[in-house]
Amino acid sequence: MSFSRKRIFRQPIPQATTIYVRPGYNRVLAEEFEALKVKRVGLVKDKVEAHSQGDLRENFGFKAAKDAIRAVDRKMTALDRFVARNTFIEVDPAGWLTKPTTTLQLGHVTTLEKQDVASQRKHRFTFLVTTHGETATDPESGIECLPHNSPLAAAVLGLPAGAQVKVRLPAGESLLTVLSVRNPTQAELDRLLREIKPPEFDDDDESVG
Questions:
Q1: pTM of the predicted protein model
Q2: Which tens digits make up the pLDDT trace of 22-60?
Q3: Which residue range(s) make up the domain with 75?
């Protein structure tokens, strides 16, 4: 068996995990898969029509349809694997307004201090620890969404205010300090939680999870 550079350096397939999502996320996944199926049917018709037009060596419409079908197939495969490898639990953000703040949990607003071990530089951030896929920023308060399954969130979830932990993040080793933990306000949730969208996959992504 030959090994390509792509295979040697490919990231290992992630283990199955539990991902917390907002209500409606499972429906969005199903609707996205059905939309891709419908798109593929249309592309196949385009391919058949282009095929009937003669010499395939110079038939750019035929080649374009083939490439588009392959791209849709890759996205359908990635989405199917994403759903098969993970368990999705829907949680209602309404409960985040009043949940206990003894330790940092999904739905809390936290201010973190991150000190880079190598440079000793310190940075301060305020996050809403939220469900999978959230990336919005509140322009009024400066709060950013931090998905609960991100490396940074995984390092601090369960810690009380004042706790410190040394972790190795993708950017390097850091000392994290949980400066505060509080509940969000309804206005903050309204500005931060946007319309639910399906996940985006790279055409070449075979390690989604």
A1: 0.77
A2: 999 999 999 999 999 999 999 888 888 777 766 555 557
A3: 15-90
